[in-house]
Amino acid sequence: MPPDSKRTAIRPRKEPKQARSRQTVADILQAATYILQRRGYDGMNTNAVAERAGVNVASLYQYFPNKQAILVELMRRHAAESRAAALEAFRSSEGETAHTVMHRIVAAGVAAHAVDPALHRIFTEEAARLGLAPFETDSDAMLATEGAAWATRMGTRRKNPELALWVATTAAHAVMHAAFVERPADATSPELVEELTLLLGRYLAPGTTQRPEARPVSSRRTRSGSPPASAKRPPR
Fold it and tell me: What gap in Å lies between CA 95 and CA 101, rounded to an integer?
């Protein structure tokens, strides 16, 4: 089978090892972010990025073969930050409810997207338009392991907790990205965080995740002060 040319094309050529080279890459990514925010992906090119970063274009090509590779590296770094927050939430979850853990993870993800909504909108739209191949971060394997272990402790009914975690994570990312494109007014609202928290928590750990203020139906009262009809005892 021939190699996937698109998958190969979007990988950085090499990782910076020394402080000076890491700074060069940081300058390139910062310049690319500036241009993406103002001109969009179609208005970005490697020459413009190199000029903005103050580096020779040949230096840029040492690390990035094309502008797609620059975009993917920006996306990868964003994903790494979000996944690191989720990993920390799972590791420090002892004694916490599923709702609390999920809420912390979702809130961190929404906050990361809210730093620069326009940039994340570009990430979403261009990734779909260009058909970019999936990428991995250094924490992916550990996040899958820790997340699956957490779901198991919470009594998940999923037969494959690791697969279930991937489904939940993918769904959460899709909702967050779509919110900033389709419903920007709701994208950072507490309501969106709560709805996503309930969606993910009830999928991964049903029966252990509910709104803190929720009470059993049988204990609720009607406006007249009497129990609802469904809670009354049947006649003998």
Answer: 10
Helix ranges restricted to H, 40-97:
46-53, 57-63, 67-91
Residue 130 lies in a domain: yes
- Find out whether 75 and 61 touch, Cβ atoms under 8 Å: no
Tens of pLDDT, residue by residue over 126-145, are 877 777 665 677 788 899 99
What φ, ψ does residue 206 adopt, rounded to 5°? -60, 140
| Domain identity same for 143 and 52 | no
Number of neighbouring beta carbons within 10 Å of residue 214: 8
Residues 106 and 179 in one domain: yes
72 belongs to a structural domain: no
Question: What is the domain-level CATH number for residue 27?
Answer: 1.10.10.60
pTM beyond 0.85: no
pLDDT in tens, 58-107: 999 999 999 999 998 998 888 888 888 899 999 999 889 999 999 999 99
> What whole-number distance in Å separates Cα of residue 201 and Cα of residue 141?
21
Residues 107 and 128 in one domain: yes
Rg (CA), the chain: 23
Domain ranges, residue 156:
77-211
